[in-house]
Structures are given as structure tokens and as C-alpha cells.
Amino acid sequence: MFLGTHYPKLDDKGRLTLPAKFRDDLAGGVVITKGQDRSLAVWPAAEFADYAGRIREASRSDARARAYSRVFFSSAFDQVPDRQGRVTIPQALRDYANLAADASAVVVGNHATVEIWNADEWARYLEAQEPQFADLSEEVVPGLF
User: 0.70 cut: is pTM over it?
Assistant: First the structure.
């Protein structure tokens, strides 16, 4: 499980060093793709394969499912982190998430995946979401409360 918030920098080659506590779980390979809210999603290879299987089950006659699948898979890049735990963020994904070389990024653990955010976008997102989170009174996760 991936937890916590970390603040690495992208280097001038578009490489990002993954947090040390995540490296063992990602050492076997990752898939980086577009995520929601202009973030990037980093999937352990096995988790990505499982999710891809669930997408495959969606109706191909549903235009929303086709559009999601096309964007999701066409933006996916697989790689193996190097010995320092670095992954290269392709330029198209850096553009999507507004990540600049030599700039701070935010790496967020999100249970089975890791998210990469532009630092300013993450701050704005939290500012908007934390009050709602604090005030939640209805069931968000079925059967949990």
C-alpha cells in the first residue's frame, strides 16, 4: 500500500526519483499514465494488468468506455525504475500534468497506485478538497460506515 506525500524534483532530463519507501514495491516495473485532475498515475505493473482487465470488460458499444480506454492506454508508458529509483516522465505526460524540469513535484501515495502532481496544482486541490473531507457525513465507501 502506498501512503504519504513526498516532494521530489524532476531533473533536467524529466526523471523523478521515487520515494525510498515505494521503491521495493515498484522495482519490478511500473506503468505511468494520465490520471484524473491532471495528475499522473504510477501503477505497479501487476496492478496495471489487473485494472486493464477490468477495463476490457467494459462495453465497447459505450462511447464513454471507448474514449476512456483510448486516452488511458495511449498515454501509458511502461518502464523499470533505475538503481536510484528514478523513472523518466515522458514529455507528453509532463505536459499533461504541467510538470517542468528542475521543478518540485508532489508524489502522493493513493493505496494501490502512486500519483504525481504539479506542486501548485496539488496545493489547490487540497485547499478545495480538505474542507469537504472534514465535513463528510455520508457514506462514501459502501459498507465502511
Answer: yes
